[in-house]
Amino acid sequence: EPEVTQTPSHQVTQMGQEVILRCVPISNHLYFYWYRQILGQKVEFLVSFYNNEISEKSEIFDDQFSVERPDGSNFTLKIRSTKLEDSAMYFCASSPRQPPEQFFGPGTRLTVL
Amino acid sequence: AQSVAQPEDQVNVAEGNPLTVKCTYSVSGNPYLFWYVQYPNRGLQFLLKYITGDNLVKGSYGFEAEFNKSQTSFHLKKPSALVSDSALYFCAVRGRGGGNKLTFGTGTQLKVEL
Fold first, then answer.
1. Over its length of 113 residues, how does chain A's per-residue pLDDT go in tens digits?
2. CA–CA distance from A93 to each of A4, A80, A109, B109 (Å)?
3. Engineering a disulfide at B92: which of A36, A69, A95, B34 sits with its beta carbon 3.0 to 4.6 angstroms away?
4. Structure confidence by residue, pLDDT tens digits, B61-83
5. Residues near B109 by beta carbon (within 8 Å), at least 6 away in sequence
6. CA–CA separation, B76 vs B66, rounded Å?
7. Cβ contacts (< 8 Å) between B57 and chain A: which residues?
């Protein structure tokens, strides 16, 4: 069964550094998402992406964040200058042609020191 | 704004007994509703969804959920719990008015004991 994959599984970085989190959505899906889950808290929406542009973003998704689909398979989340409070589990998700269910990857745990 | 409430942080049930994990929602118009399960150090795994039609929805691993519009609830149920069902369960809602973002509840830890 096709799955969303994410790399790396764990990323440790110093405050102020840039990080790129990578995702490979399910191959025939057209809608892509990033969510995050701070330890012990609920899953929060960051951004959705369709047809090579952001279709919706939350107030968390400020200028420090960006997303890109650099080729036909990868979907990336970049954090330009990480802060301590960016430490969280970041989940990528994708949807087929007709949403609404979203299929999630295993997550990347980001630790900012 | 859409929101989800899961009133129980933890539900304990004996193996073989029925289980219920509660969820209520708030959204403009008719909702799309979902249940996801998260095992330790794993991602969110889709269990089931309500889109339209029959209020009783069946999903993976013997789980089902009942949509109740008047009570704005979407409780997750299983007739006979297994120890392997122990995990963190999230309810999520999405409105139909445009935008695909899911809004999640805070999660309910299900513990099934022998």
1. 788 999 999 999 999 999 999 999 999 899 999 999 998 888 999 999 998 999 999 999 999 999 999 887 899 999 999 999 999 999 999 998 766 789 999 999 999 99
2. 7, 21, 15, 22
3. B34
4. 999 999 999 999 999 999 999 99
5. B9, B10, B11, B87, B88, B89
6. 7
7. none
Residue A98 pLDDT: 65
Tell me the residue length of chain A: 113
To the nearest whole Å, the CA of A9 is away from the closest chain B CA by 10
List the single residue in B51, B99, B104 with the smallest CB-CB distance to A56: B99
Q: What is the DSSP string of B56-109?
A: EEE-GGG-EEEEETTTTEEEEEESS--GGG-EEEEEEEEESSS----EE---EE
Q: What is the CA radius of gyration of chain B?
A: 14
Q: What tokens appear for A87 in the block? A: 């430490």
